[in-house]
Amino acid sequence: MDELITLSSATLSQLPARVERPLYQRSDLKPGIVHIGVGNFHRAHQAWYLHRLMQTGEAYEWAILGAGVRHYDAVMRERLLAQDCLTTLVELDPAGSSAEVVGSMVDYLPVEEGHAGLISAMAQPSVRIISLTVTEGGYYLDPATNQFDTSHADIQRDAVSLEKPITAFGAIIAALKSRRQTGAGPVSILSCDNLQGNGAIARQAVVSLARLHDPDLAIWIDQTCTFPNSMVDCIVPATGPNELSLVRELGIDDAVPVTHENFRQWVIEDDFCAGRPDLDKVGVTFARDVHAYEAMKLRMLNAGHQVLANVGEILGLETIADCMAHAGVCDFFRKVQQDEIIPRVEPVPEMSPQHYLDLISKRFANPSIKDTTRRVAFDGSSRHTGFVLPIIRDALAVGGEVSGLALVEAFWARMCFGTREDGSAIEANDPNWSSLLAAAQSARDRPGVWLDQQAIYGELGQAPVFSSAFEHWLTLIWQQGTRAALETYCAELAYQREQQQA
Question: What are the φ/ψ torsions at residue 104 (nearest 5 degrees)?
């Protein structure tokens, strides 16, 4: 292999011809967006859409300033700054891969105690959008009520003083306070996290914390700033040795490359108080109401990920594609979707739930995407409460079927026991792992203990239809094994197939 080209602005012209690179002069870009949470998803999704618009000669005033509020963000900052905030994106398709370098981010703000640099940047008049990917667990929601948790210690501290805020929302409020005082004006705060009504949840977090600190400021924020809801969709694996190797094979030395599938979708409520880039020109859908899009994606794709990942971990299936290649797990996934999730999903323009199921099944089965079950199963205490449990509640309200979703929850409880069926250990994979582990170990003999976790299940744990099904499945899993549970649940599906073939 020829010598690797170290990625930077100075070496863009030296990249291999098969790697697309920015056509615009990055020195002409001006920051208009501060983005908090510069992970792989952001760089493969929002940053890519802006890059594509810049490739057409537009949106030069909407470049991104990256930011982070956690200590580990400093590592990403150091690596990105070393390569001028450029990222190599590798699209993985069974038919063949392709690569491009994205240049829409122009700087990464210091990660520091008190977030002075972040606050100052967000307070600049040129910044008109503050966007976030801080994960589902980053919005300080009480899992039982889905309301903002004002009792959290970090929130309590920021409520008292915004001199050196701890949280991202504290920093945002400090910047908005400055903008109000200087006349810089309001901004749009755009959540790009997988939450139903993510804009409303972002508004709830910002306004609730502001109200604790300064009620008048909270009123100004609520009345002048906008919080568009959005739905984001693209499967983006974590970067590991395999991903680094793919980029090196292209001849590029990139410390933080990103791989992704050959599918993206972004639907945004068109509610921006200070302008926005014309992202509809590069495939973004702007709509007055994104609820139906959100519900379809969160319930079928995100909840579907939890259907696969927990049982996949128990069986030692390394990737989501491996789960889809396992006949029993794939049948389980399809049956839960058909019988219990699709009935709770409305169609959207040009996409029926059945069509969407076929689409995500194909995407999940893509063997080129090494999306690990461990990554997808991470932070189940946020993902099950956010994606799976709302479907169960809605189904119970109308007398719908929940047996398969109860089995999903039983597999989660079994996974949190901390061992796979082959005896290997499942390492801690949740911010609340110690409490989940204790509950899972007690639930082996007393299944109801798992549902007694009020912070997760609330009143749902006492719902007779759900709790009875859950206890049945967890008991079966421990007595006869995971495969027996899958076979028992899917027996009806197998029977239907036999009838169709007869």
Answer: -80, -15
